[in-house]
């Protein structure tokens, strides 16, 4: 198996509009329609993997109250989503797959060690990163292209130089974090790279950000694996952001990560709320992971000025990476 795709209909069991069950249901259907039919079910793991990232108090709070501060959840549903990510990690470690995509929900990147937020309960990407590290992949790069800043993921690795956290996100937008000058602390100083972009930013600007920041930093960091916090709410049709990517943008970014940083790539679903564009965008990512040609093309848009200024500011804030 070349590309592992981790999915179960059980990912539909948790209701939380607009982070709704149909997101993964219609995406799975679209993949099947496009001859991607081999799904791997999430396996069962020891729950101690969750404790590598989250405090016992927070875990206990979800279990006993079935709730964090904004909406209800059955702990098993959050656990299933995280186990989907660990399954992808296990497949990579055991050479069952060259790379993988996890079509899971609920998402995770807004979850801190001790609190959830923004439809997120357990930080799937962070739990996966720790799992990979405990299996010999010492350096992990997280590339978060969700429209919203991954405040939880940033916080979990803020003082940790073994995980390079990078995020391209719309600003201003929920959760209001992710400033350029937020670069990490202590040993982790310089290992958080935030790239806030204005509403209207699209494919061309993301390509510049990739060639000027993400790819050079990735090459220098030389990670053992990349985890993509793949939130396709940065698509131009998404109702939760004003960014302007197209499905071909996700194909191109995934391909560039594979060819320029490392072949060891796991994509983890974060946001993406337009039920028409999300399936096409996920299919584009999977197509890149499978090293197939993508025929969807690129839809160019008129973009706001100033992206070179943002890139310059990020580079001068992080002099050690170039
Ligand atoms: Zn998002």
From TrEMBL:
Gene Ontology molecular function terms on file: histone deacetylase activity
Species classification: Archaea, Methanobacteriati, Methanobacteriota, Stenosarchaea group, Methanomicrobia
Pfam family, one: Hist_deacetyl
Protein name (database record): Histone deacetylase superfamily
TM region(s), chain numbering: none
Domain Histone deacetylase: 18-289
GO annotation (BP), single: epigenetic regulation of gene expression
InterPro entries attached to this UniProt entry: HDACs, His_deacetylse_dom, His_deacetylse_dom_sf, Ureohydrolase_dom_sf
């Amino acid at each position: 198996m070349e590309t592992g795709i981790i999915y179960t209909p059980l990912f539909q069991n948790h209701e939380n509009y607009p982070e709704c069950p149909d997101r993964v249901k219609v995406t799975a259907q679209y993949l099947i329609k496009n001859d991607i039919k081999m799904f791997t079910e999430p396996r069962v793991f020891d729950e101690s993997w969750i404790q590598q990232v989250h405090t016992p108090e927070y875990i206990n709070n979800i279990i006993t109250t079935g709730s964090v501060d904004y909406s209800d959840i059955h702990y098993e549903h959050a656990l299933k989503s995280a186990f989907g990510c660990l399954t992808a990690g296990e497949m990579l470690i055991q050479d069952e797959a060259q790379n993988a995509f996890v079509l899971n929900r609920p998402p995770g990147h807004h979850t801190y060690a001790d609190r959830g937020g923004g439809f997120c309960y357990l930080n799937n990407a962070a739990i996966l990163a720790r799992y990979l590290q405990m299996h010999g992949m010492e350096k992990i790069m997280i590339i978060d292209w969700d429209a919203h800043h991954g405040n939880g993921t940033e916080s979990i690795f803020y003082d940790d130089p073994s995980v390079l956290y990078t995020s391209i996100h719309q600003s201003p937008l929920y959760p209001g974090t992710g400033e350029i000058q937020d670069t990490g602390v202590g040993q982790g100083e310089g290992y958080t790279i935030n790239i806030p972009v204005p509403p209207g930013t699209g494919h061309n600007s993301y390509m510049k950000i990739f060639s000027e920041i993400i790819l050079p930093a990735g090459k220098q960091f030389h990670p053992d694996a990349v985890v993509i916090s793949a939130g396709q709410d940065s698509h131009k049709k998404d109702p939760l952001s004003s960014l302007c990517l197209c499905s071909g943008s996700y194909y191109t970014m995934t391909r560039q990560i594979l060819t320029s940083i490392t072949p060891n790539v796991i994509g983890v679903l974060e946001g993406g709320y337009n039920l028409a564009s999300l399936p096409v965008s996920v299919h584009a990512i999977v197509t890149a992971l499978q090293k197939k040609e993508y025929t969807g093309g690129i839809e160019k848009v008129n973009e706001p000025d100033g992206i070179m200024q943002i890139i310059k500011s990020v580079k001068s804030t992080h002099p050690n990476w170039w």
